[in-house]
């Protein structure tokens, strides 16, 4: 990596090595005659300065062995930041001295090698006869202790060991016009630093890793691994955000009135630099009047199936019976419960979850078997899955639909044993279908007739705390081609954004489907009475006793969600391998039959009469809701629900065309657009400065525009030596960051408020320059021993203008008299 800003060339590499090639040697090599040109490479090579070998600062030697990942020039202060993943070093660009070394927490670095993790073991008690004779409570208690102990051991390591550092890694940094430095971390954390390396404040608006940062004028753009882009002001307040790409955003840059984003799959998109802003509401209103021109309607048939498999395995015929009705189905969602259970399984699952691992061989068996049933490969493709102990959810998409499906994220929420273990809880998948967000959540709630309140609490916990992250087997849509788009900040249901504080992520989806073993039972009915009603197929009488329907009507659970009318017998509890309604549990406990296994949903509609439109983009109807009563592999019957989903989407190419016509024909919008892109009128107090013997002159820049801020940057355009005959000999810009070493300009960039004045100090500095040969300092001389003239350019921009108005100032340095 390198840093070259019209001055010295800095490079950083592995092992903390930082090398500098001074401008003086490069300038000298460029001035060689044609006969001497063959010496240019050697001259530059021998001038190299290895900062690491030059250091003699106590306590820094082992710190600077970290790989240098980033270099950043602070033009205003003539400083350079070098950054590794977990530490920073701050250098004086003029003297090349190390000023400070500190970590990502802002503390002075004092690294100590951490002890290696010795691991942990889970000891399983032997099943001796004596242990088997102990009471169920004792076994339960030992199981809890084993599970919680194992999970706690891994959590302690994750909090203090290598895994803990991963979320603190610096992934991007940028300098803003107000002189602040921003860094972005793997955890999504944004940190603001001042120019001296002091940590000022931090912000967290998204749970995914920051991939890149870009600053222009009064704003900072943040690109995330999720494909999301956010805009912040210089104070750290979030102004807006949207999903820009289906993959990580790896670079952001500004040009020609647009912010351009580059995704890892090669897609490039351009976004209007003024948005969000005053034009958005007007443009939105104008565009909404033309929705009929660019709205496209899509229809997707979807099968959602749930089954508590009771730690068993299914026959091929059972899977065909359950999932075989898939004609014209584009998406298949499968939720399984009790794939595997037991104290050892739960302990191992808890340990895996803590270090970011999931899945099991039994879970994989189920995925493979269902994949074969669905003709995976030639007809369907599995796009995502998530397992938490005995809970497993997976989604398959028909090949003809897969180009319109992407951004698959996964989530898991344990509800068992103090909300820590996955014997009860939920797993979820979130994906984007035709640019709309679908969420599927597979749940297993608290058991037993009397645990209604606990089941309600389980749902509430899942709904409020489920947070999605990118799945390990992500399937993304085809790469988006190069496009110059003008974004409209979307409504809350389609932004893909981290919701506002306190808002559940599930509330942001256009379609949410809950499926699973919710464990709600029938109240106030005896076993024999329930069996008689079932045999008569009088399900209306049973529904009156259903706990879930009662709790939903009371607003205690699944608020705002719907369920189709149940027309099938209760799906629990059956004796395995016993067919028909005679298979209901007839053992000693005689558990009362119940509809434990359910599918509920919520789409975009606020009322049942709402039609599908861009304002109400997803409308669902249920074609079939049924149980597979012929399946006998478990004590539960599998349930399936087939949805017809209407989706309204915008044709972006037509919408961009309509937007262009609005921008060109609407006089009010055109006037506002011109005002936003206006460069503020500014006055510079002098265009000629003479300095001698460490003089200081104040250059005043006045913003005469009474509405908007002016943003200025000062660079050195040209340096000339005044010859004996009075003629000027022109040279390229030189010195650190464009200024000769004898000149200090402070600040070299900044913001001027409306009708305010910025004062810039232009100082003549006594500065000795060293020549380096093979990294060893040689002769010294003063740069200003000759009559020297430079041209400073004050570049002034508006908040949204990439063009600048230039003011030139001649600064002449006279030799000692």
TrEMBL record:
Start and end residues of each Inositol polyphosphate-related phosphatase domain: 298-651
Record has Amino-acid biosynthesis as a keyword: no
Superkingdom of the source species: Eukaryota
One GO BP annotation of this record: pollen germination
Pfam family, one: Beta-prop_IP5PC_F
InterPro entries the UniProt entry points to: Beta-prop_IP5PC_F (IPR056454), Ig-like_IP5PC_F (IPR056455), IP5 (IPR046985), IPPc (IPR000300)
UniProt keyword annotations, A-Z: Hydrolase, Isopeptide bond, Magnesium, Metal-binding, Repeat, Ubl conjugation, WD repeat
Protein family (similarity comment): Belongs to the inositol polyphosphate 5-phosphatase family.
Protein name as annotated: Inositol polyphosphate-related phosphatase domain-containing protein
Organism expressing this protein natively: Carya illinoinensis (Pecan)
Lineage of producing organism: Eukaryota, Viridiplantae, Streptophyta, Embryophyta, Tracheophyta
């Amino acid at each position: 990596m390198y840093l070259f800003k019209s001055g010295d060339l800095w490079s950083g590499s592995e092992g903390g090595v930082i090398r500098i090639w001074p401008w003086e040697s490069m300038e000298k090599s460029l001035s060689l005659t044609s006969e001497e040109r063959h010496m240019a490479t050697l001259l530059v090579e021998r001038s190299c300065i290895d900062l690491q070998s030059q250091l003699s600062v106590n306590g820094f030697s082992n710190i600077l062995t970290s790989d240098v990942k980033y270099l950043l020039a602070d033009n205003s202060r003539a400083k350079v930041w070098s950054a590794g993943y977990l530490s920073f070093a701050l250098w004086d660009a003029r003297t090349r001295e190390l000023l400070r070394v500190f970590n990502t927490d802002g503390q002075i670095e004092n690294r100590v090698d951490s002890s290696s993790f010795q691991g942990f073991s889970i000891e399983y008690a032997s099943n001796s006869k004596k242990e088997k004779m102990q009471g169920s409570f004792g076994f339960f208690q030992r199981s809890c202790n084993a599970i919680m102990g194992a999970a706690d051991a891994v959590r302690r390591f994750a909090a203090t060991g290598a895994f803990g550092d991963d979320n603190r890694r610096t992934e991007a940094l940028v300098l803003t016009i107000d002189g602040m430095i921003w860094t972005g971390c793997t955890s999504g954390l944004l940190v603001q630093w001042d120019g001296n390396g002091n940590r000022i404040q931090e912000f967290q608006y998204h749970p995914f890793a920051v991939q890149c940062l870009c600053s222009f004028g009064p704003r900072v753009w943040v690109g995330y691994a999720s494909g999301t882009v956010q805009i912040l002001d210089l104070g750290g307040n979030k102004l807006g955000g949207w999903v820009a790409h289906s993959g990580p955003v790896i670079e952001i840059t500004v040009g020609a009135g647009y912010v351009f984003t580059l995704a890892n799959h090669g897609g490039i998109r351009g976004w209007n630099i003024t948005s969000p802003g005053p034009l958005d509401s007007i443009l939105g209103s104008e565009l909404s009047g033309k929705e009929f021109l660019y709205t496209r309607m899509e229809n997707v048939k979807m099968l959602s199936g749930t089954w508590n498999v009771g730690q068993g395995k299914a026959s091929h015929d059972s899977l065909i019976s359950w999932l075989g009705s898939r004609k014209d189905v584009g998406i298949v969602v499968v939720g399984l419960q009790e794939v595997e259970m037991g104290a050892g399984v739960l302990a191992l699952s808890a340990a895996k979850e803590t270090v970011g691992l999931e899945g099991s061989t039994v879970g994989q068996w189920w995925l493979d078997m269902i994949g074969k049933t669905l003709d995976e490969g030639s007809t369907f493709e599995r796009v995502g899955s998530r397992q938490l102990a005995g809970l497993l959810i997976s989604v398959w998409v028909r090949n003809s639909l897969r180009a319109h499906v992407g951004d698959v994220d996964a989530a898991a929420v344990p509800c068992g044993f103090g909300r820590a273990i996955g014997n009860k809880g939920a797993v979820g998948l979130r994906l984007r279908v035709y640019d709309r967000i679908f969420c599927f959540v597979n749940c297993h709630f608290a058991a037993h007739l009397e645990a209604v309140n606990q089941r309600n609490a389980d749902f509430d916990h899942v709904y409020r705390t489920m947070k999605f992250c990118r799945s390990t087997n992500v399937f993304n849509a085809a790469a988006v081609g190069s496009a110059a788009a003008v974004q409209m900040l979307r409504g809350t249901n389609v932004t893909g954004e981290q919701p506002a504080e306190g808002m559940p992520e599930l509330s942001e989806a256009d379609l949410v489907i809950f499926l699973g073993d919710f464990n709600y039972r029938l109240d106030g009915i005896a076993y024999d009475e329930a069996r008689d009603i079932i045999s008569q197929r009088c399900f209306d009488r049973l529904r009156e006793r259903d706990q879930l329907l009662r709790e939903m009507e009371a607003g205690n659970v699944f608020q705002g969600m719907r369920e189709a009318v149940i027309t099938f017998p209760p799906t629990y509890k059956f004796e395995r391998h016993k067919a028909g309604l005679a298979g209901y549990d007839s053992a000693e406990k005689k558990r009362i039959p119940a509809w434990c296994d359910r599918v509920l949903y919520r789409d975009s509609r606020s009322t049942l009469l709402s039609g599908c439109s861009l304002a109400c983009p997803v409308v669902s109807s249920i074609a079939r809701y049924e149980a597979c009563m012929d399946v006998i592999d478990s004590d539960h019957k599998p349930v399936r629900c087939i949805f017809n989903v209407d989706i309204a989407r915008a044709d972006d190419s037509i919408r961009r065309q309509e937007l262009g016509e609005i921008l060109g024909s609407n006089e009010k919008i055109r006037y506002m657009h011109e005002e936003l892109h206006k460069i503020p009128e500014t006055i510079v107090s002098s265009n000629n400065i003479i300095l001698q013997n460490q003089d200081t002159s104040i250059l005043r820049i006045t913003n005469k525009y009474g509405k908007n801020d002016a943003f200025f940057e000062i660079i050195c355009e040209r340096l000339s030596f005044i010859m004996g005959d009075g003629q000027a000999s022109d040279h390229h810009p030189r010195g650190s960051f464009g200024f000769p070493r004898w000149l200090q300009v402070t600040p070299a960039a900044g913001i001027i408020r409306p009708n305010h004045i910025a004062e810039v100090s232009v100082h003549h500095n006594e500065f000795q320059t060293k020549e380096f040969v093979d990294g060893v300092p040689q002769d010294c001389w003063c740069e200003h021993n000759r009559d020297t003239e430079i041209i400073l350019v004050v570049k002034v921009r508006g908040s949204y203008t990439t063009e600048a108005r230039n003011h030139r100032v001649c600064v002449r340095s006279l030799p000692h008299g």
